[in-house]
Amino acid sequence: MAMIAFEEVTKTHGIPGSRRPTLDSINLEIEPGEFVLLTGPSGSGKTTLLNLVTALERPDSGSVLIGGRDVHRLTSGSLPFLRRNIGVIHQELYLVPEVSVRENVRWAVEVQGVRHRTVRARTQVSLELLQLADHADSPVGSLSRDVQQRVAIARALAAEPAIVLADEPTSALDGHYAHLVLDLLARLASRGTTIVLASRSPLVSGYVRAGRVLQLQDGTLRPTTRTVIREFDLTGGAGLEARASESA
Amino acid sequence: MKNTSVRYALRGAWRGVAMSPWLHAMALLTVVLCTLLAMSVTLGWRNITEAAEAQHRRAASQPIVVQMTTAGSAAAAELLARDLEGLPEVARIELARADAPVKAQARSLEVYVHADTQPEFAQRLAHYLARRAGVVEPGPLTDASSLDVRAIALGLVVFAALAAWLMIGSVLRLTVFARRGEIRVLEMLGATTRFIRAPHMLLGFLHTLLGALVAASLLQVVLVAFAPDWSLLLTRVNNGVAFAPRFFRPEELAVGIGVTVLFGLWTMRAAVAHARRP
């Protein structure tokens, strides 16, 4: 069974009278543990597609299934349980600026209702993975955009979700941190987490040797290109740097 | 509720106060002032009502004397007595003796009513007697002004309660509105409704409980400090019948505070639901 499935999904935006389909009869299946890179120009519907998975938007027609269950038929009581299993890195970040980095990250684990010790441990690991330990007690609003983006990523990964949806996760990051994040996502995929990464950045497209590259254009998915999956270096950034220079 | 939810609720409530201390101080002050207003008016109404009832009990123990005109015949007085005897509120009627030394030509009736008769009966009787031929004036009757004061006071109670609830509701909603970003984020992270609500409900509970307790304490202090003045005022309102004001009974106070707290919780619940709407 596919982890994520889109069945004839259509979504339109715009004012009545001049509505145009952002997504037009999309059919897509993403398997568990698959790494999918979603590309396409700005406004092509990448964010809408991700929002449909987390039920932040509703399709006009068709179904979005997660693990075989239609997301948009879930009751309001069931929706939180779905969302806890999906780590989302939004373009807008959706952080609370007055609150510390640690608190922002901790919420993602806390909502799962796990033990306090687990909350602390997962939060700390996630902060360290994204090299945020030094900023842990700073209010998010006092930090630069690139640090904030890493906080959003740390929060998405802290909950150890089954699916990670990343919308332009490296847009504000420099090369070092972009590689760090992409490496992390690759490691997660190799351990069975389903990753859907939406990006129009050439850096990401050139760097990520994704399991599948999908291109969204004019509301439709262009024929998919299955690329050769290179072995991800699970030992960390050094291998990635080497691969980056190799591909250059 | 799980341990982590409780921790989040406590931390979230504290963070809410720390992030906007002035807003929460204003919320608490509003609860104190509005509850004080509602309690004061309710207490005023209670005391006026009890004073009026005391006056009525006193009046009911004395007969209503109906003085007939000099030209009025004994037959007219007896006919009136028979008519009044048929009323359920009337306990008994005594006809003054015809050979009484004062105003020997006039006759009078003494109407005794049952102790549990409503004060409004005296007014109805007065209207009836005013239209009856041969009657000079009835007296003493319950003063209509005490009934009017009670009605006005009850109207004020309703108005004050509605105004207080509206004010408290609005300012409590503001505290939730200030954190709608956090609510939205938690919702996207998969927090349950109970988890999101918890810190706000806790704050609503604390604000209303503390506010109502402070208001009740202030009111009691004011009542004790100005007891002689209140007593004088109520005695005047009460046509000279002495009446000492009293504070709420403990069970009345508990109900008042309980209702305020429940209102606070209900407001917070509604405010969070409103903040979650897209």
Précis, in short:
The complex is a heterodimer of chains A (248) and B (278). Chain A is α/β, with parallel strands linked by helices and 248 residues long. Chain A has helices at 46-53, 79-84, 101-110, 116-129, 145-158, 175-190, 202-207, 237-247, and strands at residues 4-13, 20-30, 35-39, 61-66, 69-70, 86-89, 163-167, 194-198, 212-217, 220-221.
How would you sum up this structure, described in words?
The longest helix of chain A has 16 residues, at 175-190. Chain A contains eight helices and ten strands. Chain A has a domain at 96-160. A six-stranded mixed sheet of chain A has the order 6-7-8-3-9-10, with helices on both faces. In chain A, strands 2-1-4-5 form a four-stranded antiparallel sheet, with helices on one face. In chain A, α3 crosses α4. Chain A has helices at 46-53, 79-84, 101-110, 116-129, 145-158, 175-190, 202-207, 237-247; strands spanning 4-13, 20-30, 35-39, 61-66, 69-70, 86-89, 163-167, 194-198, 212-217, 220-221. Chain A is α/β, with parallel strands linked by helices and 248 residues long. Chain B folds into two domains: 2-57 and 146-275, no CATH class; 65-140, 2-Layer Sandwich (Alpha-Beta Plaits). Chain B has helices spanning 3-19, 21-60, 74-85, 120-131, 144-177, 180-189, 193-225, 227-237, 250-276; strands at 64-68, 90-95, 108-113, 135-139. In chain B, α5 packs parallel to α9. The longest helix of chain B has 40 residues, at 21-60. The A-B interface holds A 54, 56, 76-77, 79-86, 88, 90, 94-96, 98-99, 103-104, 107-108, 110-116, 119, 155, 159 and B 2-5, 7-8, 11, 15, 19, 181-182, 184-193, 195.
Beta content of chain A:
15-25%
Largest sheet of chain A: 6 strands, mixed
Average of per-residue pLDDT values of chain A: 85
- Name the shape of chain A in a single word: globular
Q: Which oligomeric state applies? A: heterodimer
Largest interface: A-B, 33 and 22 residues
Q: Rg of chain A, please?
A: 18 Å
Tally the helices of chain B.
9
Helical residue percent band of chain B: over 70%
Contiguous runs where pLDDT drops below 50 for at least 5 residues of chain A = 226-248
Give the strand tally of chain A.
10
Series of H and E elements of chain A:
EEEHEEHEHHHEHEHEEH
Total domains of chain B, how many?
2
Helix content of chain A: 25-40%
Structural class of chain B: alpha+beta
The proportion of strand residues of chain B reads 5-15%
